[in-house]
Amino acid sequence: MFNESHSLKKRDFYLNKLIAFQDTEPVKVITGIRRCGKSSLMKLMIRHLRECGISDEQIIAMNFESMEYRPMDVKSFYNYVCEKKPADKKVYLFFDEVQRIAEWQDAINSFRVDFPCDIYITGSNAYLLSSEFATYLSGRYVEIKMLPLSFKEFIDFHGYTLTERKSPTGKTTKKISDSEGNIYDTEELFEAYLKFGGMPGIADVGLDTDKAMTLLDGIYSTVVMRDILEREKRRGQRQITDADLLRKIIMFLADNIGSNTSVTSIGNTLVNEGLLDSSRKTKPAVQTVQAYVGALLESYIFYEAKRYDIKGKEYLRTLGKFYIVDIGLRNFLMGLRDVDTGHILENIVYFELLRRGYDTAIGKIGNVEVDFIASNADEKIYYQVTQTMVSEQTRERELRPLMQIRDNYEKVILTMDKGLYNSVDGIKIVNIIDWLLD
To answer: Burial letters for 216-235: b for 16+ Cβ neighbours within 10 Å, e otherwise?
Structure first.
């Protein structure tokens, strides 16, 4: 059973998704970068089951990061569960980092067909949902994609309380208070979020730079060593072998979040810096870089946003953008120095749109670009993100792409400015902090 010695913080957004699929056939697969809260989400689900009257004997939880289960193969894994389960009751199975067991999918499929069960698994690498697993469970699993803390969750995890009040003029303002009653502006906590990011573990060490960077160092090292380099060994492949080159590519992507990037441009930069030999014929730079970038996407440290031609209504194959899953990790990699705040805000907005369930792409219309097209089954919204719109030149630059779009979908500019405008020609102007807390 998982250790629940420390208090669990609420992640209701994700927990409610799991509860919605409770006692249904699909295997619930929780994915996301290491240390983003997947294990805690499982514990929260176990707590929910107990509150619903499920007995402990009906719950089997195994964390395969533990040495207790390290000697297991798929057969002993299957036998262990069969010996533990009650004979005449439904069993709830929770398997954390199950991909550490070779051919684990055989056991999961057997559990499904051999006895009544409800299965929950986690994985820190998209290899978990590879073609092998999809073949075994085609149409029989649901993926819960977990991300680090949103700004709203960050406030809660660090012990602050968000309150709203109306001014005499009817305007709603938001304030943040701590347990001692001290009041903070939302901007103060947002600055901390921009610095430390949203990894839940930082709430345990506090907003201390040295401790936070040590924790982020551990997360980064674990992602690189376990979920990328070790993964290659488990797959029997040797494409990702150069840890130094992998770090160089990570640094390049972290430094260029929100910029149009291609695998070719990454390779060219690395070759120009002498990190890759462009004369190699058996493994050209573009193929090498493609393999390394693919591994970074599979480990959920970076996400890729494709470009979409708004007029042509088709996705483009070139010049997408990469975003890092957590700004704190970027600050660990790049150092706490003066940075491009505009691209950092863009990075935060991208992941907030993913949290809110939108398919998110980069928009192209003519020779200009819309930062994001966010769409789901019910709506489509166009977003521009900018630090400020105070100057006339910036206003014109941010408004121009949205004004060229002739459809009637909502158009929004997110900015750090407060109260500058409510809208311009039907385009909403919204403070980014208010939007994140909405």
So the answer is: beebbebbbebbbbebbeee
Beta strands in 220-301 (DSSP E): 260-261
List all residues 6 or more positions away from 128 whose beta carbon is below 8 Å from its beta carbon.
29, 31, 98, 99, 121
Continuous segment of H or E residues that includes residue 399? helix 392-403
Distance between CA 36 and CA 20 in Å, rounded? 21
Name the phi and psi angles at 173, rounded to 5: -120, 150
Q: Are 269 and 289 within 8 A, CB to CB?
A: no
Q: Which of 417, 412, 423, 430 is nearest to 387 (CA)?
A: 417
Identify the DSSP state of 181: -
| Nearest 10 degrees: Cα torsion 106, 109, 114, 118 | 130
User: What ranges make up the beta strands (E) of 127-218?
Assistant: 141-145, 161-166, 172-177, 183-184
- Cα–Cα nearest to 177, from 190, 200, 159, 151: 159
Q: What confidence score (pLDDT) does residue 278 get?
A: 54
Provide φ and ψ at 25, rounded to 5°. -65, -40
315, pLDDT greater than 50? yes
Q: Which tokens hold the place of 88?
A: 């005449």
Q: How many CB atoms lie under 10 A from the CB of residue 39?
A: 20
CA 82, chain centre distance (Å): 34
CA nearest 372: which of 411, 344, 400, 316?
411
Model pTM score: 0.92
Q: What is the topology classification, in CATH, of domain 12-145?
A: Rossmann fold (3.40.50)
The pairs formed by 192-195 with CB atoms below 8 angstroms and a separation of 24 or more are: 192/154, 192/158, 193/151, 193/154, 193/327, 194/327, 194/341, 194/344, 194/348, 195/328, 195/331, 195/336
Tell me the longest C-alpha to C-alpha distance in the chain.
Answer: 72
- Compute the distance between CA of residue 71 and CA of residue 143 in angstroms, rounded to an integer: 28
* Rounded Cα–Cα distance for residues 231 and 124 (Å): 11
* CA distance readout (Å), 122 to 72, 273, 278: 18, 39, 39
- Identify the residue with better confidence: 105 or 51: 51
Location of each CATH 3.40.50.300 domain in the chain: 12-145
The yes-or-no verdict on residue 166 having pLDDT over 90 is no
What angle (nearest 5°) sits at the alpha carbon of residue 292, between those of residues 278 and 34? Answer: 160
pLDDT band at 283; cut points 50, 70, 90: very low
